[in-house]
Amino acid sequence: MNLRVMLWCCCLLFAVGCSPRSDDQAGDLLAQLQETGSVRVGVKLDTPPFGFPLAGEPAGFDIDIITSVLARLGIDEVTMVPVTSANRMETLLDGEVDILIASMTITRSRDRLVDFSVPYFQDGQGLLVAADSDITGVADLPQRRVGVSAGSTSLHNVRQVAPQAEMVTVENFAELVQALADGRVEAITTDTTILIGLRRDLPGGADAWRLAGDAFSTEPYGIAMPKNQSNLRAAINDALMAMWEDGDYQMLYDSWFGAHTPYADHVQFGMTPYPQ
Is 163 exposed, middle or buried (0-12, 13-18, 19+ CB in 10 A)? Predict the structure, then answer.
């Protein structure tokens, strides 16, 4: 499957934003990680196909991406630390993890607190409803109960397009799926690719649930790290670009989002190299 790529202007914006900063950072985290050969990575394990448990081990697109990136940096001892949408920023800011790859959208508010790599994936927010629901898209959300996970961009996005929707916030995606299954909400919303992955855990299987309408936001995912770690950010960006150039990124992308997967018709973009 040929990769549908992100708009050049988007990556140019983040390439400029990811240029090295001054060396006033408190310690070189990249040097520390390479010296010890170990790193703690915050990952989500409730968002298939990006992160989920498989045979007792973390698996998914995010897991494969960061494993390849770190191998290129000479860091082989990787401890995957489970996080949620609600606590992922806190775990990084408190120093409980060294970096985050957690299907996390790059936003201006987050960028004030942490630094991001160039985007490695782009998604769009959608709605998941019962197959027999009369909800056809965001226009039908006013006065409807809509479930959303805490700590995500989803709540803000729905309030922008459907301010009269009745939002129900839960702590994690397991609770989000349960709220829809129990009928406590009429729809749940997060990024479309994640919704397709969550659908398999609902009663009745995938055929009992459907996506309602088109995606209504743009969600570029980035790898997050502490502020002012310019060496680490440059190294991660270089590794991502090398993955693009040598075909590793395409191979991983196809394995999770290719024509043989349930995500093929819904994925918006992968990654494109930014101008040097």
Answer: exposed
Q: Tokens standing for 83?
A: 């996080």
- CATH topology for 125-211? D-Maltodextrin-Binding Protein; domain 2 (3.40.190)
User: Which overall architecture, per CATH, does domain 8-122+219-257 show?
Assistant: 3-Layer(aba) Sandwich (3.40)
Measured CA to CA, the distance from residue 98 to residue 250 in angstroms comes to: 26
Closest C-alpha to 28, from 93, 76, 98, 77 = 98
Q: Residue type for 197, please?
A: G
pLDDT in tens, 195-245: 999 998 899 988 899 999 999 999 999 999 999 999 999 999 999 999 999
How confident is the model over 116-145, as pLDDT tens digits?
999 999 999 999 999 999 999 999 999 999
Asked if residue 100 lies in contact with residue 227, where contact means CB atoms within 8 angstroms, the answer is no
